[in-house]
């Protein structure tokens, strides 16, 4: 029976002087005697000691970097520094040789390759310390998300990936069709006749599961979605992906304050879970983060380390600030008055940019911030209209280094108000008849939010490019693997 390296290193005292079987990939083979073995279960390697006089020369010459091995041996206390135990090899089986031309080179050393090059080498990317750590953390974040909602009596919903609705009204959606591109049917006016398509109407890949989740919430009370979403935005920035994962809870009878409380509790729970369960990976990422900061000009360096930053988010209550107060702060800031903002703040109603969000979080309040009560004209049609008639009950959670990490609102529950807002914002009422209907049959106050998984993983890993926290990034002109 195979023992994982994580199991062995965590419970080694019980296994001293026992024979065990391990399997993994060679990270290094030194002096024809010491194998550094890793099986992906942990960032830590296992040292295997080989008595080269006891093994066939043909086996030893094929123990090269990246080759995969099965090893049977005795667990003993290590005589050298750097590890508590090691394995004295009794049997070595080569499962997969490394027969590339670079077999003797350190092809899996992160310092030998840029992160951009590694994105083009998916089969090697996961074998580096950096990306194995990032994706173990991503896995833990995903597990913690499900665990949080399960413990709080939410029901998990799988909402459609193919949809006829544009939840955000942005129009930046990927079309879905079964048409032969050489023979697209058209109507008498020359427009594409989607009635002839597979679904009988124009359909797209979803940008959000929210609207569908609201229909389920109206019967189940507390629901959440967690799945892939898509946006056809032709952007090559470090913050955008064409395919990304969204977490979207919807809660009946919740108001805006309840929604903010839920978002804060949720984020703190997930981050705390990672701190408690990903210690080795976070220590590695923390050291990398510190090295990266040293390369920056002093004025641009983070004021705290990665682990310290995560601990501070858990310990601090999020600062709650109205949009109106935030505009006053930004408008009167030295940065704005001296023209240091790329997008100057001149008046109430401005749509805040990332630079404004990060100023509020990192410089003014020095803590996570929740902004609420935004102007209705810069927010989506489904958000609850406040009594002032000018603002909606929207909320955004802002994090250091990231900016907006969660966006949400209390939803408009009044049928006539929602219908009027849809008309004002040119949202097709016929297309969303079913969404309007949810306000006819026992409508209730309700609220929800959306979290971009990759943004949260960026925050907890200290990575700076969103393409480096998703296994197979989908961006303009890039759909490999």
From TrEMBL:
Family that this chain belongs to: Belongs to the class-II aminoacyl-tRNA synthetase family.
The Aminoacyl-transfer RNA synthetases class-II family profile domain, residue ranges: 135-471
InterPro entries: Aa-tRNA-synt_II, aa-tRNA-synth_II, aa-tRNA-synth_II/BPL/LPL, Asn-tRNA-ligase, Asp/Asn-tRNA-synth_IIb, NA-bd_OB-fold, NA-bd_OB_tRNA
CDD domains assigned to the protein according to its UniProt record, in alphabetical order: AsxRS_core, EcAsnRS_like_N
Gene3D superfamilies linked: Bira Bifunctional Protein, Domain 2 (3.30.930.10), Nucleic acid-binding proteins (2.40.50.140)
EC number: 6.1.1.22
Pfam short name (any one): tRNA_anti-codon
Coiled coil: none
UniProt keyword Aminoacyl-tRNA synthetase, yes or no: yes
GO molecular function, one term: asparagine-tRNA ligase activity
Record keywords: Aminoacyl-tRNA synthetase, ATP-binding, Cytoplasm, Ligase, Nucleotide-binding, Protein biosynthesis
Compartment list: Cytoplasm
Protein name, UniProt field: Asparagine--tRNA ligase
Organism: Chryseobacterium gotjawalense
